[in-house]
Amino acid sequence: MGWVQGVMPSGEIKRFGHSKNPNELTYFDLGEFLREKQRMGVSQRLEGASSICDLADRRIRREVGDLSQLEWDSYADAVLAAKNAVDSSGRNIIHQFAEFHDMFSNEAHGSPKFLCWHRWFIFYWESALRVFNPLVTLPYWDSARDAANPRGAQVFTETRAGSGENGTNVLNGKFKNWNVTFAQPHSVKRFLDESILVENSSKIDALLNNSSGTCEFMRLFEAIHGFVHLFVRRWSLPRALNLPRGEMTQIQVSPNDLVFFLHQYVVSTTWRKIEKLNKGVSQFIVSSWR
């Protein structure tokens, strides 16, 4: 069932394809994967349809707190299997997605394209995981739902993405001591800084309904969205005092922390709200992945 092949450093040829044993899939190249998706017409479907899926590729995303343990474990196991797959340079899937995010940092941040670009990014992350488990979908963390007590959110528990605060590694769960290689080998750190305000959904919806246009809302939304990154990672003080920092507000490496992908769901839902309000999103469509 393979449909994209690549040559490993040893010279062995590996192919993409769905397998009953995802650990058998040891090769993954993000560039090849994206080009293949474009050849299959995914780009046109994303741009031309009001929904990014059809009945043959239906994806229902659910909040991490609403998942059964089996459902969460299916997602986590797909991530772990994907992490073991590398490209011809030995970069695993986490490294490749983090590096790709870094490559497009100027285009994807501080720009009206923020929502659209990240909507695509998490769609392709989810699609990549479906190489390893074709039934998996990306869960999400609704930080607005936990705004009153984000530190107590279920996402930061042993049964989900793992606990960890005040600069520790991920302490437990399937992602315990989560190690990454981009931009250099290290363990992901988390802080859960209670001094950072996490906004509730009412504030976000009010901004959307009251902003004068899409550009104004995009600018304000990106700032609010970024507060959650600051909460997970810590405010800028550590840099000034030369203290350790987490991943989430460093654009170059933020996808190293898997909470990044769980948090980005709000990008898709907010984009859909803008479409429904007819605030003119077509001018912000990203036409290609270079």
UniProtKB/TrEMBL annotation:
Single GO term (MF): metal ion binding
Keyword Lyase applies: no
Keywords: Copper, Metal-binding
SUPFAM superfamilies in UniProt: Di-copper centre-containing domain
Source superkingdom: Eukaryota
Classification via InterPro entries: Di-copper_centre_dom_sf (IPR008922), Tyrosinase/Hemocyanin (IPR050316), Tyrosinase_Cu-bd (IPR002227)
Pfam families listed in its UniProt record: Tyrosinase
Residue ranges of every copy of the Tyrosinase copper-binding domain listed in the record: 94-270
UniProt cross-references to PANTHER family, sorted A to Z: TYROSINASE FAMILY MEMBER, TYROSINASE-LIKE PROTEIN TYR-1-RELATED
Name used for this protein in its record: Tyrosinase copper-binding domain-containing protein
Originating species: Compsopogon caeruleus
